[in-house]
Design a protein that fits this description.
Bound molecules: 2-acetamido-2-deoxy-beta-D-glucopyranose
Number of helices: 5
Distance between the termini: 44 Å
Helix content: under 10%
Oligomer: single chain
Length: 435
């Protein structure tokens, strides 16, 4: 493997980008057996006030049967500079896994291009929202630069196992990016919160009328909408990329797979009785509104909006990693077990400067949980309670309260015991257990 100075590799890549060379990925270095690669999405163009919300299919991704160890991303310009949130607000990036039919060729027999998503089957994470809602493997928002995503050894997210891919399909990856250019806008935070009055829209992305009491959120800041600029301002377009950095290891029998669960605080589990028995249906709304605390509230410290949901996790396991996703105004969220114990508490940090990664007033990072593996166990069917808190001194629109959880169903010694090729470990364990 190459070991090249990182800046050199980076400049080289930018040079290739400028030349329009499609090779947008390169291996940077190998440490032990951890591999690291930096990739770039196709470029997107933003001008002051404009919004992109795009899906890029078949993105560059590590190949083979591997375990993902971390996934980080940020917005950069053509020279590779990090772009601060007060210029381009990164609402979110999410990465989805899908199977693409090998028969979905580029053009149809009538010569028309087929849509990029033709013949694709999304492979969602392990739950728990309905259908494909919140089905991503990876994803963060403005907090992306300051949030740890590393998965400790010997755990990893298993992907690319050829035995899992159905006949006639290939495993692929897509990324959805939602970014808002807030240079020269009248109200930067308002544009970032997708307040409808600033976007001058009356219908959503699918031409459905927006209900009058909907003040802000995803329905008002879809692709190609524009947020209100300051009087007389008009700025130049510029080209940006989402740069994403993935660490992984080749799969082997000593890696313990983790499952990905994302709990949404807006999820209301609906139960229904039909002839076949009890049915449950998750109803995740993804976003919600936070009303401001009553104006006669004297103490601003009492202005905390609390939203809770309680849901069962059908299959439990040991918590390996946890992090929340909140928007502006968020002050943290906590996941509780059925007995009230804290499974993970995750708190946003706000920037106080001007530079990328420390933008004043924005969420620039989220604290994460790395419990000692084995110390926090969720039992099968345990009812978890998620609580998401916002500071509602001011109202907030289109906020989120997601909790991303990595769960291992077995601990390493249990897992290896089941693994046929590691019988020597079984012996070691038997000796340890016998004494
Ligand atoms: C708002 O939208 C309407 C119709 O789409 C347009 O005619 C009008 O100029 C827009 N107003 C502003 C302030 O952009
Ligand atoms: C909410 O934010 C206001 C400032 O906007 C601050 O004065 C107040 O202490 C905050 N409250 C909490 C509970 O964080």
């Amino acid at each position: 493997m190459w070991f090249v100075h990182r800046d050199l590799v980076f400049s080289l890549a930018i040079f290739m980008l400028l030349l329009g060379i499609s090779c947008s990925s390169f291996l940077v270095k190998t440490e032990n057996k951890i591999k690291l690669a930096v990739f770039f999405t196709p470029k997107f163009e933003l001008e002051p006030g404009s919004v992109i919300e795009k899906d890029y299919y078949n993105i560059d991704f590590p190949k083979g049967h591997i375990a993902i160890k971390s996934f980080n991303a940020e917005v950069v310009d053509e020279a590779g500079n990090s772009i601060p949130l007060h210029e381009t607000y990164l609402h979110h990036w999410v990465v989805n896994r899908y199977y693409q039919s090998k028969h979905a060729t580029q053009t149809r027999h009538d010569g028309q291009n087929i849509p990029e998503n033709y013949g694709n089957v999304m492979v969602r994470n392990n739950g728990i929202c309905q259908e494909n809602t919140i089905g991503q493997y990876f994803g963060l928002g403005s907090e992306t630069r300051g949030t740890r995503t590393d998965i400790p050894d010997p755990f990893g997210i298993e992907i690319g196992n050829p035995e899992e891919v159905p006949e006639g399909f290939e495993e692929k990856w897509m990324i959805n990016i939602h970014a808002i250019d807030t240079r020269d806008v009248e109200d930067k935070l308002g544009c970032s919160e997708c307040r409808c009055n600033l976007y001058n829209v009356t219908v959503d992305e699918y031409w459905r009328a927006i209900r009058p009491n909907y003040k802000g959120g995803l329905l008002c800041c879809y692709d190609d909408t524009h947020c209100k600029l300051k009087e007389g301002f008009e700025g130049p377009k510029r080209s940006l990329y989402l740069k994403y950095t993935i660490k992984w290891v080749d799969w082997d029998d000593f890696i313990v797979p983790v499952k990905i669960y994302i709990i949404d605080v807006t999820d209301t589990l609906k139960l229904s009785n039909d002839p076949k028995g009890l049915n449950s249906y998750h109803d995740c709304q993804v976003e919600y509104q936070v009303e401001s605390c009553s104006t006669n509230q004297k103490d601003e410290n009492d202005c905390v909006h609390v939203k809770r949901t309680s849901l069962p996790l059908e299959t439990g396991g040991y918590v390996i990693y946890g992090v929340t996703h909140q928007h502006l105004g968020g002050i943290g969220s906590t996941l509780y077990g059925q007995d009230g114990r804290v499974i993970c508490s995750s708190i946003p940090s706000y920037g106080n400067g001007n530079e990328a990664g420390n933008e004043a007033g924005y969420i620039v990072g989220m604290s994460t949980c790395y419990p000692q593996p084995g110390s926090i166990k969720i039992i099968n069917g345990e009812i978890l309670t998620l609580e998401s808190n916002y500071n509602n001194t001011k109202e907030h629109t289109g906020v989120m309260g997601l909790f991303y959880l990595l769960v291992a169903e077995e601990l390493p010694y249990q897992y290896f015991r089941h693994s046929t090729r590691s019988s020597f470990l079984m012996d070691v364990n038997n000796i340890l257990l016998d004494n």
